[in-house]
Amino acid sequence: MVPLNKCIGLMAYYLGVEVKQHEDGIFISQEGYAKEILKKFKMDNGKPINTPVECRIKLSKYNGEEKMDPTLYKSLVGSFRYLACTRPDILYATGLISRYMENPTTTHMKAAKRILRYLKDTINFGLFYSTTNDYKLVGYSDSDWSGDVDDRKSTTGFVFFMGDTTLTWMSKKQPIVTLSTCEAEYVAATTCVCHAVCLRNLLKELGMTQEVSTKICVDNKSTMTLAKNPVFLDRNKHINTRYHYIREFISRKDVQVE
């Protein structure tokens, strides 16, 4: 993420997306759209803040607070989702508040307005795609464990870079309840590997074949051990079979975890 004012050159607009050509690449942002969101929800004079979500926040559907207008709340969440096309920094926070669209309360609206305050502070942020000959794909995978207090499911997050360019990203609640941090990280890493395989095939079609294994970075040693060698099979056989998909591609050296 870089500020728009660091770029100069040709500017183009399409459906709220601003594309600016620079001698070292192109800068893509939605500054105008972000300003429209702030104005629409009467937060254009709000107090700026430098993080989109409160640290270690725990939201719930059953907090017993005053109900808010679901139509207004859904409109706000939808605006954030479109803005996340160029703002991966708000993706997790947007996914978090989108879980409560049916019956939003004052706490949920407060969390949503925090994102608006964050946009106020980072209004000119966007993505810079530099001109480079480095087509090496690298992925980063992470998860929380039992982050949703209502159903105790974890959240998967990953981001892929090609050289120094952010290529694709995701933040999504996992479909199963995991029984340990190792399993939560393993599910997240497998999702990341599935995406890596798709990207490798796409890049091959575009003539940018990945000659070396795609590196997937995770932050759990037990997950790496489980992915590389099923020595804990008896202890982890409860993990859904589809999540052992990762081992096949590690053995084929299409991906590597570290």
Helix percentage range? 25-40%
Mean pLDDT: 88
- The helix/strand series, from N terminus to C terminus, equals EEEEHHHHEEEEHEHHHE
Using only C-alpha atoms, the radius of gyration works out to: 20 Å
Distance between the termini: 25 Å
Q: Main sheet, how many strands, which sense, barrel?
A: 5 strands, antiparallel
Strand content: 15-25%
Tally of separate helices: 8
Query: Class by helix and strand content?
Result: alpha+beta
| Counted beta strands | 10
Arrangement of strands in the largest sheet: 1-5-4-3-2
How many structural domains does the protein architecture include?
A: 2
Please state the overall shape, judged from the principal axes of the Cα atoms. Answer: flat
Which parts are unreliable, with pLDDT below 50 for 5 consecutive residues or more?
A: 6-10
Protein name: Reverse transcriptase Ty1/copia-type domain-containing protein
InterPro entries: DNA/RNA_pol_sf
